Amino acid sequence: MVRLTKQIVHTVPAPDEGLLEKARTGAPSRSVHAEFFEHIEAFHVIERRPPSRPAAWPGSFRIAALNAKRLKNRAAVRSLLDRAGLHAALLSEADAGMARSGNVHTIGELAAPSGEGFLFGVEFMELDLGDAREMRDHHGQRNACGFHGNGIVAALELADPVLIRLEEGGLWFPGRNGAQRRIGGRMALAARMEAAPQPFWLVSVHLESKTDPADRQAQMQTLLRALDRLAPPRDACVIGGDFNTKALPRDETERQEPLFDDLRAAGFSWRHSNVAGPTQRTDPAGKPKPPFGKLDWIVVRGLEARNPQVIPVLDQNGDPASDHDLLMADLSF
Fold first, then answer.
1. SS3 322
2. Residue 217 Cα distances to 96, 154, 258, angstroms
3. By residue range, what is the domain housing residue 183?
4. Which residue numbers delimit the Endonuclease/exonuclease/phosphatase domain (predicted)?
């Protein structure tokens, strides 16, 4: 059964600190994780802020997908979105109330200067300060609320938002190498473009990195089953985000990742909305190292795609703001 969340809030409620302390000291089992997941309200709501002045339908719609790597460098990402002339950005790995990113709502700060609206959904509740390096760098600090998730930023009105849980197995609950203990699981955010001349859905997705192609396929199948209920095949739809496809950026990628078979069967295509080159890059911490892979994708149904580009995510000094570059394409009916 696919879990769909439609409850909208103005601000995701902060977790109970006593509950989080129990989670930190509890047995890292699947059943214990499930109990904490159910009792944390943040996993069962969507934060929505409308644009200050909703834009009209532009005719040709420019969209991007970006894994923002905590969204620490919001100035660099904001500048990039403005220069690209985007109408919507599908974002993953955005913090809210994490010490490592300034204990702010990163997507809220990203959207504020432009007056854009946004959706935000919590993927993980971080029980630590982050990975091992982040725990060293921020030793002695505290997270304001410890949220980490996905979002959609758009100048146009987003209607009928839905959070789609792709898995709830608690893979990250025990942590990795003594760090990064988390409650939660991978998810997608979907919404309908209110101003579009016909039904048109945006979907921001982030598939699991610490797994295999079969598990990523299962997560994509869960997403596609949800879309069958939300956006029938006659509706236009774009899915974008970090698919975590691990093969190098060659033609073999699609054959090694069976999730593409499911996307094709569901009517999605990607030939004209992607480029063959990699979307990874080395981040300020020096990871990952080359060779880089193509992890990020934009796939479309019921739309014409053109002008795909991968744009370096660099600040004004030429330093990387993420370990992914931005993938962009133009769409029209």
1. coil
2. 29, 28, 6
3. 3-332
4. 74-324
User: Based on the structure, what is the number of domains in the chain?
Assistant: 1
User: What's the pLDDT at 284?
Assistant: 85
The pLDDT score that the predictor gives to residue 264 is: 97
Cα–Cα distances in angstroms (integers) from residue 234 to residues 60, 90, 228, 254, 266, in the given order: 19, 22, 10, 25, 11
In the chain, % of residues over pLDDT 90: 91
- Joined together, the tokens standing for residue 197 give 């001349």
pLDDT the model gives residue 168: 94
Which pLDDT score is estimated for 254?
63
| Non-local CB neighbours of 89 within 8 Å, separated by 6+ positions | 63, 64, 65, 66, 81, 152, 153, 154
**pLDDT digits 0-9 by tens, 282-306:** 998 889 999 899 999 999 999 999 9
301, two tokens: 């149904």
Contact 173, 182 (CB under 8 A): yes
At residue 202, φ and ψ (nearest 5 deg) are -105, 140
CATH value at residue 171: 3.60.10.10
In whole angstroms, give the CA distance from residue 74 to residue 321: 8
The H-or-E segment that residue 119 falls in is: strand 117-126
Q: Is the peptide bond before 284 cis (omega within 30 degrees of 0)?
A: no
